[in-house]
UniProtKB/TrEMBL annotation:
<feature type="domain" description="F-box">
    <location>
        <begin position="1"/>
        <end position="46"/>
    </location>
</feature>
<dbReference type="GO" id="GO:0031146">
    <property type="term" value="P:SCF-dependent proteasomal ubiquitin-dependent protein catabolic process"/>
</dbReference>
<dbReference type="InterPro" id="IPR036047">
    <property type="entry name" value="F-box-like_dom_sf"/>
</dbReference>
<dbReference type="InterPro" id="IPR032675">
    <property type="entry name" value="LRR_dom_sf"/>
</dbReference>
<dbReference type="InterPro" id="IPR001810">
    <property type="entry name" value="F-box_dom"/>
</dbReference>
<protein>
    <recommendedName>
        <fullName>F-box domain-containing protein</fullName>
    </recommendedName>
</protein>
<dbReference type="GO" id="GO:0019005">
    <property type="term" value="C:SCF ubiquitin ligase complex"/>
</dbReference>
<dbReference type="Pfam" id="PF12937">
    <property type="entry name" value="F-box-like"/>
</dbReference>
Length: 372
């Protein structure tokens, strides 16, 4: 189209939203009109690969603030620091330029403290998603999030040593409509405070919960506290919970606590219980209670049997996939599976039979129609 560059700005912007990043970049060099339409889209998602690139972007932010009516940082909506260590100094320089940011991911936050982070919510009040790993921030920063980030719905914290018994309380994040919370550590001792976990029961909008390497006694107590009884009527404190992930929580499946919880949360659609010492008792609870579950991940649990898995598949009619890595289930146990569901022979050269790592939709359908 010869007159592409002369299309009305609104139409040109709509077209560019449908093409890939490289085409948008090419369009930016057509003429000034196209450049003006392309720049907001090119800066919308910013993934920073290293400190050197971060310094260059810092200079661009600061120069645009003083010389251009259109501030580059105001176009950024999604900011991703996955590949290098972010510092207080960098955050302090960037925050004033990013008032429209909605998602922030920081994987190496070991050099981030309250010195910078307590000011971030004030500069970035539209934040909806925060993923933070290895940070030293404390209650001071969490309270700031609760005061300014009134759209914060997703909070993922991993190995953040400043998480204490008041972090998740309504006093700290009181005004955040949290729907998705993930807490993780590399050692269960780092998340062994019962009071910290109890704060989770305050979020009645919760739809997604993920717990990794949380102390088993703490997880059990949390699960037992998620229902209330009034006039013989049992109600869940998380009535909208649809996604549950619990990983690396030894002996969680050794008694009926997990089964008790599953029976009281029939709204679950996705369940991931990895390396928690499951038995067929839990699989039977899933089969009996979770009639709408579509995906189940029970990897790294060698206490389950193919009989329990088959019962679950037969009774959970909405089920489309079951992940079984490290469950010692062989192709003899499930002759219905196709080769793509079987682990490569290189992983078990000395074994008489190959292990399967999943049941896909085709295998599940075959199991349901078989008589076994």
């Amino acid at each position: 189209m010869n007159n592409f560059g002369s299309l009305p700005f609104e139409i040109l912007s709509l077209i560019l939203k449908q093409v890939d990043q490289q085409d948008i970049y090419t369009c930016a060099f057509v003429n000034q009109h196209c450049h003006r339409a392309a720049i907001p889209l090119l800066w919308r998602t910013l993934s920073v690969p290293d400190a050197e690139t971060a310094d260059i972007i810092t200079d661009l932010f600061e120069s645009s603030s003083s010389s251009s009516p259109t501030l580059l940082g105001h176009h950024v909506r999604h900011l991703d620091f996955r590949f290098f260590a972010v510092t207080d100094r960098l955050l302090l320089r960037w925050m004033p330029h990013l008032p429209q940011v909605t998602t922030l991911t920081i994987f190496s936050g070991g050099a981030i403290t309250d010195t910078s982070f307590q000011h971030l919510p004030r500069h970035c009040p539209r934040l909806q998603y925060l993923c933070l790993r290895y940070s030293l921030i404390t209650q001071l920063s969490f309270r700031a999030l609760g005061q300014h980030c009134l759209q914060l719905r997703v909070l993922h914290l991993h190995e953040c040593s400043g998480v204490d018994n008041t972090t998740l309380s309504k006093d700290a994040l009181q005004r955040c409509p949290l729907e998705n919370i993930a807490l993780g550590a590399n050692d269960p001792l780092h998340l062994s405070n019962v009071t910290t976990m109890i704060g989770l029961t305050s979020y009645d909008l919760l739809t997604n919960l993920s717990l990794t390497y949380v102390s088993t006694p703490v997880v059990k107590q949390l699960l037992l506290m998620t229902t209330t009884t009034n006039n013989d009527c049992t109600t869940s404190v998380w009535p909208h919970l649809t996604y549950l992930t619990v990983s690396s929580c030894a002996d969680l499946g050794s008694d009926d606590t997990l089964s008790w919880f599953l029976q009281r949360h029939p709204t679950l659609r996705y369940v991931s219980l990895v390396r928690v010492d499951l038995t067929d008792l839990t699989l039977d609870a899933i089969a009996a209670s979770l009639h709408h579950v579509t995906r189940v991940n029970i990897s790294r649990n060698q206490g389950i049997t193919h009989h329990g898995i088959r019962r679950m598949v037969h009774q959970c009619r909405a089920l489309t996939s079951v992940s079984l890595y490290g469950c010692a289930q062989t192709e003899v146990d499930f002759p219905e599976v196709e080769p793509e569901c079987i682990e490569p022979a290189i992983f078990h050269r000395q074994e008489p039979h190959r292990y399967i790592h999943k049941l896909d939709q085709e295998a599940i359908n075959t199991i349901r129609t078989s008589r076994s």
